[in-house]
Amino acid sequence: MVSYNAISTILFGGIVDNIGKEFKFLRESLSKTNIQIPFRSYLSAAMMSALVIYLFSLVAITGFLMFFDLLIVQKILMILFGPILLALATFSVLVLYPYQKMLSTAKSIDVNLPFALSHMAAIAESGVPPYMIFKLLSKFDEYGEIAREMQVLVRNMDTFGIDPLTAIRNLADRTPSNEFRQVMLGIVSATEGGGDVKSYIKNAGEQALFEW
């Protein structure tokens, strides 16, 4: 059975290819959230959904107005503009949702980061390697989006066999939080430079708590 995304991509993929550059914010938002849908497919689905809502509301409004004694001009205006407004609202909500989710994710990470870093530093003090720190942190749902980011990080290493430094870089590239990105890249730099990762995490945690 052909999926909804496949049908929408067939119908609107060409349009997305032509106007996709106008939705740069959507492409970036999708890359920085856990919405596992390619940009082309997502925007095509948004267009398809707007079309479906337009057609459905056109029929519904036309049938609904048959039961009301309104001026013909009023009926025409409602039939003309009602479906368009509903379709535009649907499209806007779907297009803006990833951006709002990205902002929400960044806020959750930034709020919990000082406490997560302090926890990481405490674990690192025991001599546990970074991989185990990430794995332990991924089990603490209290840290919100940070725990989910760590779950993805651990999954990429365990399931897909990505080496730790590459996995951390990938996480840094797609996280919507600038502070979290700097911490992850700092761990990579400390590891590659032969520095003390434990000390780096501890210092980052202390600085984050101080700023908080």
Summary tags:
212 residues; mainly alpha; elongated
Could you explain how this protein is built, in words?
With about 210 residues, the chain is mainly alpha-helical. Helices cover about 80% and strands about 0% of the residues. It has nine helices and no strands. The protein has helices at about 5-20, 25-30, 40-65, 70-125, 130-135, 145-160, 165-175, 180-190, 195-210. The model has no long low-confidence stretch (mean pLDDT about 90).
Task: List strands and helices in order, with pairings.
Elements (H helix, E strand, L loop, with lengths): L3 H16 L4 H8 L7 H27 L6 H53 L5 H8 L7 H14 L5 H11 L3 H15 L4 H15 L1
Helix pairs in contact: 1-3, 2-4, 3-4, 4-5, 4-9, 5-6, 6-7, 7-8, 8-9
Shape: elongated
**Which class best fits the helix and strand makeup?**
mainly alpha
Strand content: under 5%
Number of strands: 0
Describe the structure concisely.
This protein has 212 residues and is an all-alpha fold.
